[in-house]
Amino acid sequence: MELIYPWISYIGIVVLIILLLLRLSRKSTYREGKKVANIDLIEETELYKKLKRQYRIFGTSALVSLLLAIGCGFVLLSRPAKVEQVNTELRNRDIFLCMDISSSMDELNLEMCEQLREVVKKLDGERFGITIFNAKSVLLVPLTNDYEYVLETLDKLEESLKVSMEMEESDYDYTSDDFDFELFYYKYDGTLSETASSLIGDGLASCLYNFPDLTENTERSRLIIFTTDNELNGTPYVTLDEATRLCGKNDVKVFAIGPDNIVDEEAFKSSVESTGGKYYRSTSSKAYEHLIDDIEKTEDSVMNKIETIIYDQPQIVFICMVIFAGVYFVLSRKVKL
Predict the structure, then answer these.
(1) What pTM was computed for the model?
(2) Closest CA to 204 of 172, 240, 175
(3) Among the residues of the chain, which ranges form H helices?
(4) Are residues 202 and 324 located together in one domain of the fold?
(5) 220 is in which domain, residue-wise?
(6) Tens-digit pLDDT profile for residues 2-21
(7) Is 93 in the same domain as 69?
(8) How far apart are CA 88 and CA 128, in angstroms?
(9) Same domain for 248 and 326?
(10) Do 188 and 243 share a structural domain?
């Protein structure tokens, strides 16, 4: 056990010494009763000697108990505690899922959600985030190590994708009471525009700048899992080449996966791999397994964080203070201190 504020206990020692000296220097005075002469005979009796010994024992014990109770009070003020140094190993890596949520990507995105669920469960200290985009980009999950929240978001996104796929594959009744508009529009909310769709470069660049401390903390390992069919419809603010150059400049690797009908595949692959990442075609053998393996193999730096944990332990000292105070009050009544 340690004292967090030991200087208070030093003050307590000085106070106790002063109180003890004052008590010892106090002269005996008659407070009550009457003076009696010629008591030599009484003082020689065994009963008198016995009562005098009891008085001294009780008086001294009461005084000591009082001083100890006061001393315990000063110890409590000094905050008795157990102090531990904990060395925590943190994985210094950030992962963002950047997902093109146009309807042509539903099947691929659904598979990606299922695969990433297992990845997130294996994370240990790394931060994970999710952005989705169409004409506009939306941050669904900022970088966090709250993996339960990430999994909940993946589940809800997966349900929304399933509803969207059902609507594409059959004549879905929008007027049915079973139709869940909120769930259907979950993946579209905030991403749509009347003038454009699937602005690939804007989506990737927006995801890039959702990394906090991008330029200040260059030691973190950062990567983006990118899903898109590269089918651009509209005029973006940032082209794909410009977005991947920004990623490379900030040392952010892009691991992209696209469908079999991806637009301009060779140019897309070249842009993605210029960041130090890789491109995968979803129809290739074990494409998702290779993607996950390569992501897990990416270098992540380990940061040791030393924390000081203080466990307050006032219980024993408090109990002692109560006991000493109780002893003082009992004995002081016997000797009328």
Answers:
(1) 0.64
(2) 240
(3) 6-25, 40-43, 46-77, 106-122, 147-169, 181-184, 200-208, 240-249, 265-273, 287-297, 315-335
(4) no
(5) 88-305
(6) 888 889 888 988 988 888 88
(7) no
(8) 19
(9) no
(10) yes
